[in-house]
Amino acid sequence: MIKIERRDETSNLIYFLTPVLAIFLTLVTGAIIFYLLGFKPLEALKFFFITPISDLYGLSELLVKATPLCLIAIGLSFCFKSNNWNIGAEGQLTFGGIVGGGVALLFYNHEGFYVLPLIILAGAIGGMIFAMIPAILKIYFNTNEILVSLMLVYISKLLLDYLVVGPWSNPEGFNFPETRQFSESARLPILFEGLRIHAGIFIALFSVFLAWVVLFKTYLGFQIKVSGLSLKTAKYAGFKGKTMILLVFMVSGACAGLAGVGEITGPIGQLHRMISPEYGFTAIIVAFLGRLNPIGIVFASLIVALTYLGAETAQIFLQVPKYTGQVFQGMILFFLLASDFLLFFRIKFLGLKKYEY
Amino acid sequence: MYKNFLRLLASVLLLLGFSINANAEFKVGFVYVGPTGDHGWTYQHDEGRKAVEAAGIKTTYVESVPEGADAERVIRQLAQSGHDLIFTTSFGYMDPTNKVAKDFPNVKFEHATGYKREHSNVSTYSARFYEGRTLLGHMAGKMTKTNVIGYIASFPIPEVIRGINAMTLAAQKVNPNIKTKIVWVFTWYDPGKESEAAQALIDQGADIIMQHTDSTAPVQVAEKAGVWSFGQASDMQRFAPKSILTSIIDDWAPYYVERSIAARDGTWKQQDTWHGLKEGMVAMAPYNSAMGSGLVKEVEKLQKDLASGKAHSFTGPIYDQKGNLLVAEGKVADDGMLAGMSVYVKGVEGDIPK
Predict the structure, then answer these.
(1) B152 in the same domain as B93
(2) CB A174 to CB B66 under 8 A?
(3) Residue A317 in contact with partner chain B when CB distance is under 8 A
(4) pLDDT tens string for chain B (354 positions)?
(5) Whole-complex ipTM
(6) Is residue B17 located within the same domain as residue B80?
(7) Exposed/middle/buried for residue A189 (C-beta within 10 Å: 0-12, 13-18, 19+)
(8) Is A238 touching B (CB cutoff 8 A)?
(9) Which residue range(s) make up the domain with B113?
(10) Are B189 and B38 contacting, i.e. CB atoms less than 8 angstroms apart?
(11) Does B9 reach chain A within 8 Å, measured CB to CB?
């Protein structure tokens, strides 16, 4: 018979190496899948992971794609570290986008340095408020935050649908479901001419730094960590659990809101129904792949962003089905969880004879 | 200094890209909003691409490209990787297409269903689907017993309103008692929402279901409920063999082949194309014999007349819901009016969502 038991201790080094192992296993499995689909495995992997970032434009696109993922994952790490399961970052992103976009439309054709900061602030607050809903319901009514935050995703997406179809739609846009293009003063500045990389990357990097300081250098970070390891210990130590739940959700929501507002004032430039290709959900993979560690999340966001770009290039050059990108994301998470399992547990093979009822 | 260096680097890279373009073989790229297996909008565009390939021209496609920040990158990548002509096949690609076109003056761009041609290398094209709707209206008016026609609509844009109006006018002509009931689903493709809408319309007494959305769900619901239906974009007959009277088929193949050859031979020019039954961009799937040979013959004649210009979908007198005259007796609506259509004609129930 097989018995599964918890390991007494786990190596810290291996803990941070398993994501690398997971990526390696994904590449190997990916190569096998490409082979079975009838492509040359190495060539396909090259088009998937190297070609997309072999020029300046590609690198800039990688950062454009990684910026929202990184921002959201940083926020999520606060929640996940403290055992709060915020699954609704996509909704918080959307709501942040709605509030920020609303301000952008309000200041349509306004010039002034204050317009953009106002929009960004509005987006962060929007995401924050939206994330407070599952937190408050959890604190006072003991609801399940997974369900509440997930359901709120649909609410915010439908609200966005309503706004861009109806009251906020472009008056000169023949009823197409989109708002006006924001004016220049409402757009994040582009860093290099001809590329799409925008100032949003500084917001992401700054939040990485801030997260690192808070998580590793403050008492609050210590509280978050302890609550994540053992809620009972946290209670025993007298940490204010309720305040912390609210706080981590607020941080998480603000980050998602910033990501949303970064998309609409950055590469998109208006509100429409597709402001996020499910960044909020993909960021969950990013957060775990990065081991809920700010620096790890930076690398993880780059890798996951690359799977998006790679899927496009592989389809352009080899006509590999585009959904292989999602297959790769799924495989990375699968291998990570599987190696985690082996990291924390050991499997013992016991002889049949030894087994007694 | 640093900035200048980057600029230099960027221009060298661009130049490199162009020189590769000049040597490479002629290639056509396609950007799709859905998966090629959607049996609707994207499926038909991909059929068009296959026709280009069959004409001996190399093609590439990227499917399921979201109409957000990603579209611009995909279009640019196609332009950068040596594609000489790029078809962007969804409305949401309008601004990204024009943006990329500005940076690649030697690449030709064709944007489906949009109205912006900001640079001389951008053309737009669309089909006069409303001509097909006129035929559906004729059949619906004759086949309905409850006099209620159920219509699943996507977004209140001129194209969709035009379809509703064309259908209603044609149905009224053969059956003055009909009413058009509309459910707006605010999506182009969502089998769940579409089937709910179809069911809701059937519950309200509709015995004809038609859709301006792309999934096969509504015709399948109609088949189950035993009411008539019409397919959209591609021939959906096999999904509802009893229920479907015909499908409006978007046939992009002739246009794609013609434009690809023109681009290859250097005769491509910017234009705004709006083709219909006459040119074959709108085609009808085989008519269901269940409606009787008499009606089939009638519809076939009407189809011929619409194609030849003898008949027009919007022939006056046409009144709006409030009774204001839109098109006078003996006149037909001009393309400008059709392109901006934003009111219902008399006989349509409800208001256009605002």
Answers:
(1) no
(2) no
(3) yes
(4) 455 555 554 554 444 444 444 456 899 999 999 888 888 899 999 999 999 999 999 999 999 998 888 999 999 999 988 999 999 999 889 999 999 999 999 999 999 998 899 999 999 999 999 999 999 999 999 999 999 999 999 988 899 999 999 999 999 999 999 999 999 998 888 999 999 999 999 999 999 999 999 899 999 999 999 999 999 999 999 999 999 999 999 999 999 999 999 999 999 999 999 999 999 999 999 999 999 999 999 999 999 999 999 999 999 899 999 999 999 998 999 998 998 898 999 989 888 887
(5) 0.83
(6) yes
(7) exposed
(8) no
(9) 2-127
(10) yes
(11) yes
Tell me if B74 and A166 make a contact (CB, 8 A cut-off): no
Scan residues 197-236 of B and list those with Cβ closer than 8 Å to A. none
**C-alpha span between B37 and B41 (Å, rounded):** 10
**Domain containing B60 — which CATH number?**
3.40.50.2300
Is A154 near chain B, with CB under 8 Å? no
Give residue limits of the domains in chain A: 66-321
The CATH code of the domain at A66-321 is: 1.10.3470
A and B: number of Cβ contacts within 8 A: 98
Which tokens go with B116? 């912006």
